Amino acid sequence: MATLSTHVLDTAAGRPAPGVPVTLLDAADAVLAEASTDADGRVGSLGGELTPGTYRLRFGVDGPFYPEIVVAFRIVADEHHHVPLLLSPFGYSTYRGS
């Protein structure tokens, strides 16, 4: 089974983003897990063991332009998946981390 973690970094402030609500949803938008980033901007484990499929991470960033950011991704292998979010007031990026 695959596992999942995430990390939110505030690139405008140059530091982690603590206290960001994160929701893991499946392809049917059913909520699988909810957490908030810790003081280091991380959620170390979210959703337990996941099977292959399409998932969404919803970040409640409550920014001046983006109230939330949704990142859709696929799990295709039984390995750890890390989905970081780099956040600024008017933009964001994400990638498959390690």
TrEMBL record:
Among InterPro entries, the record links this protein to: Hydroxyisourate_hydrolase, Thyroxine_BS, Transthyretin/HIU_hydrolase_d, Transthyretin/HIU_hydrolase_sf
- What are the protein's UniProt keywords? Hydrolase, Purine metabolism
Domain (Transthyretin/hydroxyisourate hydrolase) spans: 4-97
Q: Which GO terms describe its biological process?
A: purine nucleobase metabolic process
Self-association and partners: Homotetramer.
- State whether keyword Hydrolase applies: yes
From which source organism is this entry? Ornithinimicrobium ciconiae
One Pfam annotation reads Transthyretin
CDD domains per the UniProt record, alphabetical: TLP_HIUase
Q: What is this protein called?
A: 5-hydroxyisourate hydrolase
The keyword Transcription regulation appears for this protein: no
